[in-house]
């Protein structure tokens, strides 16, 4: 998911928290959150849009941390350091959520197209 912070002035923020809403979890599952540098030129729809086959590689990603998703509900992670690393550049931040070693568990998260409980980047 991508957030555009070009409307903010300055080259740093006091705090930044990524919030995501899980609407279904079949079992407790660790969810790794990655931040990307220099790979946020992708678009959601239209010619050249992102797909499973052309998604950014995790090789160029910074591991931000892990959320232990256990049930439906809100989950939050501090992303201040990563956001600040992007504020001196194009001020766009891209996150990837990846389940690793899930043993068949399934997770479902709301997207920005949902009517409620959309993912949010809270910046102060």
Automatic annotation (TrEMBL):
Keyword tags: Secreted, Signal
Cell compartments where the protein resides: Secreted
Primary residence: secreted
Pfam families, alphabetized: CBM96
Lineage top rank: taxon: Bacteria
Coiled coil: none
Domain Carbohydrate-binding module family: 1-123
Assigned GO CC terms: extracellular region
Protein name: Carbohydrate-binding module family 96 domain-containing protein
Species in which this protein is naturally found: Anaerocolumna jejuensis DSM 15929
């Amino acid at each position: 998911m991508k957030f555009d912070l070009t409307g903010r002035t300055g080259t740093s923020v006091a705090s930044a928290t990524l919030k995501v809403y899980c609407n279904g979890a079949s079992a407790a599952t660790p969810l790794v959150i990655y931040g990307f540098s220099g790979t946020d030129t992708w678009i959601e729809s239209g010619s050249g849009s992102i797909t499973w086959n052309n998604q950014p590689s995790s090789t160029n990603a910074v591991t931000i941390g892990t959320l232990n998703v256990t049930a439906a509900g809100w989950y939050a992670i501090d992303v201040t350091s990563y956001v600040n690393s992007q504020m001196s550049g194009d001020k766009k931040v891209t996150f990837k959520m990846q389940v690793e070693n899930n043993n068949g568990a399934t997770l479902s998260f709301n997207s920005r197209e949902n009517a409620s409980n959309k993912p949010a980047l809270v910046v102060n």
